[in-house]
Automatic annotation (TrEMBL):
GO terms for molecular function: cysteine-S-conjugate beta-lyase activity. Its cofactor is pyridoxal 5'-phosphate. Its EC number is 4.4.1.13. Pfam families: Cys_Met_Meta_PP. Pathway: Amino-acid biosynthesis; L-methionine biosynthesis via de novo pathway; L-homocysteine from L-cystathionine: step 1/1. This is Cystathionine beta-lyase. The keyword Ribosomal protein does not apply.
Amino acid sequence: MKKATQLIHAGRGKEWTGSAVNPPVVRASTIVFDTMAELKHATVHRGDRVPYYGRRGTATHFALQDAICDLEGSAGCALYPCGAAAINAALLSFLKQGDHLLMVDTVYEPTRAICDKLLAGLGIETTYYNPLIGAGISALVKTNTKVIFLESPGSLTMELQDIPAISTVAKAHNIVLMLDNTWGTPLLLDAYGLGVDVCIQSATKYIVGHSDAMLGIATANEQHWPQLREHSYLMGYCASADDAYLASRGLRTLKVRLAQHEANALKVARWLQQRPEVETVRHPALPESPGHDIFQRDFSGSNGLFSFVLKQGDAKAVAAFIEGMAHFKMGFSWGGYESLIIPNLSIQKLRTASSWSYSGPLIRLHIGLEDTEDLIADLAAAFERFHQAL
C-alpha cells in the first residue's frame, strides 16, 4: 500500500470503529468485566491493546496506535500527553543511574533541559555532540553509553544528521538509537529503515495538524518495544481519548497538508534567498542549504518549517520585524495550518559542543496553508519595518 492509502485506512479496523468510518471517542477509567475469565484474559494481555484500565488505553487509543505502527513499521506505539513527555519517557525507559547518554547539540531546547536538570539529578551523564559528526561519534562512546539521541533536522538551525552512519556505530556497541522524528513524520523519513530503535514524535505538530491538541508518540522495534511500553506505563504516562481522536483524524489529511506546506515553504524560502538582508536560508530541500545531500538520500520530501539568518540586526530591529505581522503569528510550536514566526538572537548560547557560523539573528518560520503571495507581502512589510528600526 502507498502511504496516501495507508493514511486513509490505518487504524480503522472494525474492532475499533464498528460500522462507523471513524473510531468513536471512548473515555474511560475503570473497565468492568462480567467473568473471572474475562478479567484474567485482560490481565494477561493488558499490554496488547486489550481493554484493562483506562491508563492502558481504550479503542480510541488503540486505533491511533495501530495506525502509527502501520505507517512506521514499528512493533508498538505508546501515547503521552505531549511531545516532551514522550522524549522524557523514552530516555528514562533505557537510562539509569551511572549510564551515559550521547545527545545531539542542536536538540530541541526542552530536551536539553531534561538532560541538564532531570537526568543529571538522577546520576545520568550527558555528552553533547556535533550534529555533523557522523561515524565519528564512535570516539565519544564510553563503556557505559546506553543511548544515542538524534534530531534531524535540528531545532532552529536545521542541520541534518547521518543517521545510517550513527546507527552502524550504535549497533556495534549495543547502544539504543533514538530519533526525534517530528519534522520528518512517518511520511517523509523511514526511521526504522535507517536503523533507528526508538522513534519519537510530537504529534501536537503535523499529526494533529490544527493547533488544538497536545500529544506525544514513541514507537520502538521488536527488541525495544516491551521495555518502552512497560516503563512508560509504570511512569504513569497516558493521553486523553479526545486528543487521540484528534490525532487519528489529523492523520487522514497528513499527506495533502504536508505537500501544501512544502510547496508554500519552498516559494517563501526562495524569495528570502533573494533578499539582500538575508545571510542564509536554512531549508534542507534547497540545494544551497547544508546537508542537502543527506536530505536527498534519506527524506522523501519537506514541510513548512525552516529558518533564515539576517546579516545584521539588534533586538529593536528584530522586534520591529516580528511585531505587526498581518498573517504570521508569533508563537511556539508549529505544524498547524497557520503560519508562525519566532526569533532567536543568539544561537551559540544554545550550543555547547558545536559552533555556529553566523552572528546575525535567526528567525524561524512555519509556513502554513495561506496563499504565499499574502505571506510574502507580510514578510516584505516586515523588512521595511526592520530597515526603519536599524
